[in-house]
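Researcher: Re-running this chain for the archive, since the previous output was lost when a drive failed. Same request as before.
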Amino acid sequence: MPTLKDVAELVGVSISTASRVIRSDTSRHINAETKAKVWEAVRQLDYTPNESARHLVNKQKAEKKRTKQIGCIIQTARLNDDHPYYSPIITSFNKKILESGYSLAFIHTSDELADDALLHRCIHEIQVDGIIIVGEVGPAILDYLQKTEDLALIGICTNGTEITMVDYDRIHAAKSAVDHLIAQGHRSIGFIGGPGHTGELNSEERFQGFKFAMYDAGIPLQKEWIIDTRWGIDLSYERVMEQLKQPSLERPTAFFSASDQLAIPAMRAIIENNLLIPNEIAFISMDNIEFAQYTTPPLSSVHVPKVEIGMTAAATLLDMLRGEQPQLSKVLLPHKLMVRQSSLFDRN
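Model: Regenerated C-alpha cells:
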C-alpha cells in the first residue's frame, strides 16, 4: 500500500511538503510546479490520503463492485437550481440514473475542482463509478479523470476532447438560424457570442456555423459587429450598447446570438436606443430556453433538446458501466428552429 513517504520520495520533497499539498495547507508557500508533481505522484502511486479511505479503496478493488454513484462536473461558475440551460440537462440525467439504481454523489464546478485536494477526494474517497462532464472543464481536470482507472466518462457540450459525447450539431444548428435571417432578406448580420474550447472565437462551433452561412450566401463579415462577450451576460448588453453609440458605424439589420442568455440583454440595448425589433434590427438565437418565448418581442431561437440530451447521456453512461457501449463515440441529437416575432419583419 503506497504511503505519504512514497509520494514524497517520488517527487523529491519532504514528507511535510507533500502533506501540505495534499491537505491544501497554505501556511507556507509551495510553488505550482511542485504541487503538480505531488498530485501526479499521488495519481501514479494510487495513494489515498485518508487511512479509512485506503482500506475502502482496497476492499472495493478486491471485490470489484460498483458503488452505484455518479459525479457531475460542470463548466459554469454560476451553478444553481434554475440555470435555464444546464438545469434541464442535469435534472433529466439524474432522473434516469435514479431509475437505474444509481445516485448523483456530487455536483461541482470546474472552478471548485481547481482545488487538487477536492478533486482527489471526489474521485478517490467518494468512489464514483462514472462522471458526467457538462461544458468545458479544462485540460488539467480532464487529463486527471482520463488517467483514473475504471472511471467511466461521458461529456455534454465538451468539445475538443476524446471521450464519449452526447450533444447536438452546433455548426449546422447555427447555420440554419443564420440561413433563416438571410431568407428574410438580411445582408448585414452581426454575431454575439463567446470563445470555444481553445479560448478563441474561431474555435466556437456556433461562430463557425455563422460564418459558413454567410460565406455560402456570399455575404462579407463585418468585423466591427462580431461581438465577443466572453459569455458574459452584462458584457453582451455593454458591448452592443457601445457599438450602437458610434455614429460612424453602419448598424446591421440583424443579429445572430450564440445563446438566448446573450441575446436578451443585447435586445435590451437595441430597445434602449429606440430601435425596433425586428423592423430595424432582427434577432435570432440558440438554446430556446423557456424565457425566450416571453421576451418582447418573442425571441426566435434554435431549440436544443436539453431533456433528451440529459437522458441519452445517462443511458449511454449506464451502458458503458455494463460494458455495452464503445469507449469512444459521439451521439448527436436533432435541433429545431423555433421562429417567433423577433426575426419576422412586421409589415403592419
